[in-house]
Amino acid sequence: MASALRNVAIVGASGRLGPFILKAVQDEPAFNVTVIARHNSAATFSAGTKVVRVSDGYPDEEMVEAFKGQDAVVLSLGFQAEHRHSALVQASIKAGVKHLVASGYGANDSNAAVREMFPIAACKAQMVWELKSLEKPGWSWTAICCGLFFDFCITSGFFGFNIPSHTAQIWDSGVTKFSATTRTNIGLSVAKVLACPAETENRSVYISSFECSMNDALAALKKATNVDEWTVTHVDTDEQIKIGTEDFKTTGSMMAMGKPALASNLKEAYGAILRSWGC
Fold it and tell me: What is the pTM of this model?
């Protein structure tokens, strides 16, 4: 049985998701929180936040030293640092950390069809397989599968909704339901995992704030903006997958993976309703 966790280190506490994780964990009085940030990072943190600086690239020896004395490590890595995930996991083990929350937020990597279509999901699945192979008494892990970051997808235009111009791009008929989670709730889920390590150790946890379709999201935007007349175009999901995949093969740009990422949530065959996979 996992023991209680008190000292928590967060790697990647800035960026798109990290601040929400940091706030949720800091709001729990049971935790002493340390942010581990790169020396060259321009990120700033609220007054009173304990920050330990390490060299760019998260060198192994520095990370082992930074993790010593920590009960738990939370990873929230951007694309540029994901190649260091395995080394950071190993550093947590060497440092005597009890529990690790992996940087596995997002797509449902349990679905073989998603892994075949979406390379990032395949990488996430490989990450989980590696974590399973490293399980040992005194060290455990949790991965959180949360689907799309709903608030980010709305405000960034990732869904294809342009709020200022009141235009929307709907994939297929727009009726397929998918699970989505706000970044606030992802942060809360991390805090709850840390508070209940025995219940969440050595497995993926599936969460969502709600289930909706693209049509549902557009209807909510119409209400929020008090504008009923939006210009709507429709695109074919399979065609968007093809375009994104070919673009990625040509450019190698992670931006090209946006279309497959969205597609992984918009086809019923990809199992985007997360409650059907567990909790």
Answer: 0.92
